[in-house]
Design goal:
This protein has helices at about 1-30, 35-45, 50-55. With about 70 residues, it is an all-alpha fold. The chain has one domain (about 1-60). The N and C termini lie far apart (about 80 Å). The model has no long low-confidence stretch (mean pLDDT about 80).
């Protein structure tokens, strides 16, 4: 009986560990490209030749269909 309980506990520990490893892998692989995306967005905002008004203008635009 004690051997069966130990075996069940080992399997539970093994499956929880696999689940945590899988979760960590998905989390890391999802966020791996985020710095590149942030830098691209930042470069667009800080690009040379655009004034502050050119950056702000699209925010206040309304598209009304005629």
């Amino acid at each position: 009986m004690n051997q069966k309980s130990l075996s069940v506990n080992v399997w539970i520990l093994f499956l929880v560990s696999i689940g945590l490893i899988l979760f960590t892998f998905i989390l890391v692989s999802h966020n791996e490209t985020m710095p590149n995306k942030i830098n691209q967005d930042r470069d667009n905002l800080l690009s040379v030749g655009k004034t502050v008004l050119e950056h702000i203008k699209p925010i206040g635009q309304l598209n009304l269909g005629s």
